[in-house]
Amino acid sequence: MPELHIKEIAQAVSGTPVTGKKNKRIPECRFSHYHFDTREITQPNTLFFALKTENSDGHRFLRQLDAKSSAGAVVSRGFPDVEASRLSIPLIRVEDPLKAAQQLAVHVRNTHRHVTYIGITGSAGKTTTKEFIYHLLSHKANTYRSFKNWNNWIGLPFSLLNMTGQEEAAV
């Protein structure tokens, strides 16, 4: 999607922007990429969402993110201030980072109404069907398809957030 300013993101997700010890005020940073896995962050201007799952806690990987340029993170309000003060990246504190990703995806979708969205449901064959529809549509329109098999309550928001904003259709 087009770049979003940290303050616009914070407002869309009912969050509070904060900074680490190296910054005195909220930076004028913008984000155009969104992810929940620090190992896969390769683009500058990426906003990381520290998701908590049964097997992992994204807050544990914020130090790795701190080393990457032009990055920021969405963290839970329970993330300790002492830990936040050790980071040089901007943070947005929210109640639940996953819910924040979902809220931001809704915000972005509502501001990009020119895109036709196609959702596929079912218990089997969704990824194959997605690829088939994508290949059919892409000959006629600028079409986006979700990354990998990001087709659940976690992947869907990140699929929407990582669109370029130039698409006419999305599967």
Describe the structure.
By secondary structure, the protein is an alpha/beta fold. It folds into 2 domains: 104 residues, Udp-n-acetylmuramoylalanyl-d-glutamate--2,6- Diaminopimelate Ligase, Chain: A, domain 1 (3-Layer(aba) Sandwich); 57 residues, no CATH class. 29% of the residues lie in helices and 18% in strands. It contains 6 helices and 10 strands. A 5-stranded mixed beta sheet has the order 2-7-6-5-4. A 3-stranded parallel beta sheet has the order 8-10-9, with no helix packed on it. Strands 1-3 form a two-stranded antiparallel ribbon. Helix 4 crosses helix 6. The model has no long low-confidence stretch (mean pLDDT 89).
